[in-house]
Amino acid sequence: MGKYEAWYGLPNEVKFCKICNMTNQRPNSVNEYEHLRSSIKKTIHFNEHGICAACVNKERQHQVVDWKNREEELWELCERYRKNDGSYDCIVPGSGGKDSIYASWLLKYKFKMHPLTVTWSPHLYTDVGWKNFQSWIHKGGFDNFLFTPNGKTHRQLTRLAVQNLLHPFQAFIIGQKTFVTKMCAQFDIPLAFYGEMPGEYGTTDGVATKADEKKFSGYAGSGFSTDMLGGKTVMDLCLGGAFS
Questions:
Q1: Helix 98-105 × helix 127-138 angle, to 10°
Q2: Is 25 within the bounds of a domain?
Q3: Mean pLDDT of 6-19
Q4: What is the domain count for the chain?
Q5: pLDDT for res 191
Q6: Residue 222 is assigned to a structural domain of this protein
Q7: pLDDT tens readout for residues 121-148
Q8: Could you tell me the residue range of the domain that residue 103 belongs to?
Q9: Cα–Cα distance, 84 to 95 (Å, whole number)
């Protein structure tokens, strides 16, 4: 039997984590604005013991992270931005899944913050997803800003992403990531809480570290027109009438 060729930078030898059974063929999250058909995908890391990065990260959470100290840091952060006039002092993006529900509940009922929840609409709602979303807002007791993007544009970008990248979720992912910062700017709220971190899935080992602002400052250096959407530059899409 001949040796098969691995595409997209995936490992030739298929392995499975000895703890969770995750395969080493799982690609890591990437900057979607740099996503091309020719991109070489980085996959989840396995250590010399055959353990995936997600499991290593989970173990570090129990052995390395001082959770009492982290909670004190969170209290201090909340104190710095908390508003006492009832106006919004932080933003929590979410869809009504476990992460956004838990984060917003803790912020409001334990840390006494006044979160505004914001939601980027998916392509299609499932019955269960819509029910969870409604329960989050109505039973949880939260204000929510639900934004539904231009359906024609969303559909065109999704079609391009499927044709060029085999990636039907790209337009939704980009919306999720950028909508939050836009809402922070629009409401002049400098504090946002995401529900989960890439390290939970093995993308990074950053659970014990803080974000480095320098890592994000270079994304806008050459201008938005050179960023990629659906395998094409934004400039090409605009000149080609994709958004007309």
A1: 0
A2: no
A3: 86
A4: 1
A5: 97
A6: no
A7: 988 889 999 999 999 999 999 999 999 9
A8: 83-196
A9: 27
